[in-house]
Amino acid sequence: MTPNNTADQAAQRAAELRAQLEDANYRYYVLDDPTLADADYDRLLRELEALEAAHPALASADSPTQRVGSVPSGQFAQVRHAVPMLSLGNAFSDEEVADFVRRIEERLDRESPEFSVEPKLDGLAISLRYEHGAFVQGATRGDGATGEDVTANLRTVKAIPMKLRGGDWPALLEVRGEVYMPLAAFKAYNEKAIAEGGKVLANPRNGAAGSLRQLDPRVTAQRPLAFYAYAVGVVAEDYALPASHSATLKRLREWGFPVSAESGVVAGTDGLLGYYRQMGAKRDSLPFDIDGVVYKLDDYAGQREMGFVSRAPRWAIAHKFPAQEQTTVLEGIDIQIGRTGAATPVARLKPVQVAGVVVTNATLHNADQIARLDVRIGDTVIVRRAGDVIPEVARVVPEYRAPDAPQWRMPERCPVCGSEILREEDGVVWRCSGGLTCAAQRKQAVGHFASRRAMDIEGLGDRYIEDLSDLGYVQSVADLYKLELDDLLEMKRRADERDGTTPETVKAGKVATKWAENLIEAIDRSRDTTLERFLFALGIQHVGESTAKALSAWLGDLALIRRLPWPVFKRLPDVGGEVARALGHFFDQPGNQQVIDDLLARGVRAGEAHPPSAKLRDGLNLATLLVDMEIPKVTKIRADQLAAAFGDAQKLLDAPEHAYVTAGLPAESAQALASWLSVDENAQLLTRVGEALARLDALTPAASAAPAAGGPLDGKTAVLTGGLDAMSRDEAKERLEKLGAKVSGSVSKKTGFVVAGSDAGSKLAKAQELGVEVWDEAKLLAFLAEHE
């Protein structure tokens, strides 16, 4: 193959790739009918980039590879619009629209003229210049007469064609339209920016405008911009456009320009107002922001006859929707507790009308959002509302802030029940820790408590939980165990009256009490349960069935578990700091302890107690717990030195700072420890750790005699897949766990064995791929028979 042939083949392949990529853009942005997967698009683009790099002569300004952005320009040149980009007059009422139509009817002497109608996108108006079908220049609207040359940035917008399709286009064509940012893309961009610690965009319109005015086109290329064409400016003199605006839009679409699918043609005032109301109803479901609709007399002859007034055409008008953003004053920040205990800050606002509705409250999402916005009580803020979406505080107007306005902080206590509000580790969510006593969480707590894997109260569904809570029969889960038959029947009668439904408690002249009797029996049966089910039923944050089983197996006694400080829980296998703290904080709440007392007093029995595991006790000492308490600068080596020098927690707590140095700590570590212990909460925690060690020491003889937790499968991870004939998967899981196994839902290199029943699928294939041991049901049954 000669070099010339190689170059010719490269040129031919480059042309094929450009055609494929431009066709993919056309189908995606214009036809809304993509046929090329994103991965395939990227593969073709990379191939074209490689070809152009190997053959620089093939590179051209209209190549799809140029959409990634070129080097910064340093400044924008001015562009004088050959035909001014005029603004439109605004209408805010039906009467103003009727007057607009009446003036046209009178001037043109015709009834009910036809109008081209389209949504008014909230983006940035631009003009695009094409010569011989190729994109050569793009400019912003600017002041209408002069704009800025943003050609390099516009090349990065995939919805804008670099070459026109077909062949019947004019030699010179100027197309006008709107660059905007789709709502989903705007949201995704901001979420990514937040996750990476970057700067978020204020709103889609500002995002679009700011993106096009970036001096570095490579920045613009990273922004999710789109485009809709809505008009034609300059056209070559020898080319005749269609006779109407709507027909021109159709032709623009054929040439490769996206045109809004919401565009149409209507007649007269009734047609315009009908379109306005139709778009108003669809506004919140559209994938982009609009702030109104645009009406244009459809035929060009009529437009020319109507002419212009000042800087606006007489033949077009924008009918604006009520504003979705308004300025008001933030008067306070309340905390709202959700069903799961999540604490959400809510802004209390000076009443303001936004999008036609008086708004007095707005969401602030979470504490991190407040910190990002730097919202403070008394601030002047911008409030945004879109249809039925909850209003939100979008941004602050800092120049109106009082100089002494303090920063806002999340309150320490739940406004509903007074329990601690705690931030999840490495998370943005704050939660009330009073799960069993917080009225805001009551229904969620009762539903979880009664669920099949928890206390298993058959028949207590969501409907009864709602009624029991709303009508005051159940204030906490313990109240379930004081319900009587008459309470349930009265509750049903009151619920029927409230809902205006026909009472169901009377059928064929006989009181229908069977449902209530069954429920009372189910509640009574649930009084006898296992410790692991009881612990799971309490609904402690992050404590699932697996953790509940570990607590039961390793500690063995509710009376012990409920009094332990959180660092002890951290010593359990598979219990990390976040779960340990959640356990500690739950049991630290007096309200939660009271509910547990009430449950026990009303006959709930959480299994038979057994001594703690000797294996666990052997690993518990002052040194290990000092490390688990996460004291600054107290490493394992320093903890061992402190434990050897002081022996117990109280002596360590009573010692002066210089004694820590004498024990071997560097001065910096000694100072950090003393500073940590000067906080009352930390000193109390160390005292409780000492008390817990003493309590466990008292159980040492019994613990030493007790078998260690686990069994023949101790330390092994099992995975169940497929169906079993002799038992359910849940039963198999429970029996394996009693023998010490940890049963997981996924296969990995650390999996000990996989039990494969009938119709085993991908987990079996994964096990075979990784060389993990596979048991059939017969081997499982034989193993259980031998070791249980």
TrEMBL record:
Task performed by this protein: DNA ligase that catalyzes the formation of phosphodiester linkages between 5'-phosphoryl and 3'-hydroxyl groups in double-stranded DNA using NAD as a coenzyme and as the energy source for the reaction. It is essential for DNA replication and repair of damaged DNA.
Organism (species): Lysobacter enzymogenes
A GO biological process held by the record: DNA replication
Residues given in the record as Zn(2+) binding sites: 414, 417, 438
Domain of life (superkingdom): Bacteria
Enzymatic reactions: NAD(+) + (deoxyribonucleotide)n-3'-hydroxyl + 5'-phospho-(deoxyribonucleotide)m = (deoxyribonucleotide)n+m + AMP + beta-nicotinamide D-nucleotide
BRCT domain sequence ranges: 708-788
PANTHER family: CHROMOSOME TRANSMISSION FIDELITY FACTOR 18, DNA LIGASE
UniProt keyword list: DNA damage, DNA repair, DNA replication, Ligase, Magnesium, Manganese, Metal-binding, NAD, Zinc
GO terms assigned for molecular function: DNA ligase (NAD+) activity; metal ion binding
Enzyme class: ligase
InterPro entries listed in its UniProt record: BRCT_dom (IPR001357), BRCT_dom_sf (IPR036420), DisA/LigA_HHH (IPR041663), DNA_ligase (IPR001679), DNA_ligase_AS (IPR018239), DNAligase_adenylation (IPR013839), DNAligase_N (IPR013840), NA-bd_OB-fold (IPR012340)
Gene Ontology cellular component terms for the protein in this record: cytosol
Protein name from the UniProt record: DNA ligase
Cofactors: Mg(2+); Mn(2+)
EC number, UniProt record: 6.5.1.2
Keyword DNA damage: yes
Family: Belongs to the NAD-dependent DNA ligase family. LigA subfamily.
Binding site for NAD(+): 38-42, 87-88, 118, 141, 178, 296, 320
Active-site residues, record numbering mapped to chain: 120 (n6-amp-lysine intermediate)
Listed PROSITE patterns: BRCT (PS50172), DNA_LIGASE_N1 (PS01055)
